[in-house]
Amino acid sequence: MKVAVLGITGYTGSNIARELVARGHDVTGLARRTLDADIPEGVLAVAGDVHDPTTIATITQDVDAIVSATRGHMEGGDLPTVLPALVAAAQAVDARLGIVGGASSLRRGPDGPLLIDDGFPDEWRSEAEPLIAVLETLRASDAGVDWFFLSPPEIYGAHSPGERTGVYRTGLDELVVGADGRSTIGGEDYAIAFVDELEKPAHRRQRFTVGY
After folding, report:
1. Cα–Cα dist 175/151, whole Å
2. DSSP string of 34-65?
């Protein structure tokens, strides 16, 4: 596949890009700055602003998939303000749109509360709320948009990178919790799950989540 990854220098974006390259896919990455940036090997890096629709349209020409691995809360406008350009680009070239989502909209069990309503730290809301808005917008979008939204587990990020195992379990709207009672996954295994979904779609127009 030919894949455009937005947010190529971030923790998740770089892991997804490395996984794509390792599997033989052609990756173009967008970053605000490419000079002195840690660009994954094998990626064609382009410097540009994700808020510029012309930039988005240019780097997504002839791609098979578009991956948004940017933050929900960004300088210049949160992710919901970028989403229309991403959807338009995906529709223009009939590409799949994959969103690196957040965990705050997941539930703790079938009848449990959403994470964002269950003692969620106020300092994280500025990042979480835009991602929830993106998910709601996608769910209400035209059926012609082929998207998926992959929520990480509760414990995820550069602070807890874990080790690559190649093993994961999936869920839909509830946290995936391991035998130890923790909802977690390593960065490389999240990337494996994301690229698996790109290669063999199983969650068209759906949010899903992963964990050990």
Report:
1. 9
2. -TT--PPTT-EEEE--TT-HHHHHHHTTT-SE
Q: In what order do the strands lie in the sheet with 26-31?
A: 44-47, 26-31, 2-6, 65-68, 96-100, 147-151, 206-211, 169-171
Q: Please list the pLDDT of the chain residue by residue as tens digits (212 residues).
A: 999 999 999 999 999 999 999 999 999 999 988 766 788 999 999 999 999 999 999 999 999 999 999 999 998 999 999 999 999 999 999 999 999 999 999 999 898 999 999 989 999 999 999 999 999 999 999 888 999 999 999 999 999 999 999 999 999 999 999 999 999 999 999 999 999 999 999 999 999 999 99
- The CA-based angle 74-78-84, given to 5 degrees, is 130
**Is residue 76 left, alpha or beta, with left meaning phi > 0 and alpha meaning psi from -120 to 50?**
left
End-to-end Cα separation, the chain, in angstroms: 28
Angle between helices 79-93 and 125-139 (to 10 degrees): 30
Residue linked to tokens 């195992």: 165
Beta-bridged to residue 211, according to DSSP, are 169
Q: State the greatest distance between any 2 C-alpha atoms of the chain, in Å, as a whole number.
A: 48
Domains of the chain: 2-211 (3.40.50.720)
Residue type, 33: R
Phi–psi pair at 30, nearest 5 degrees: -105, 135
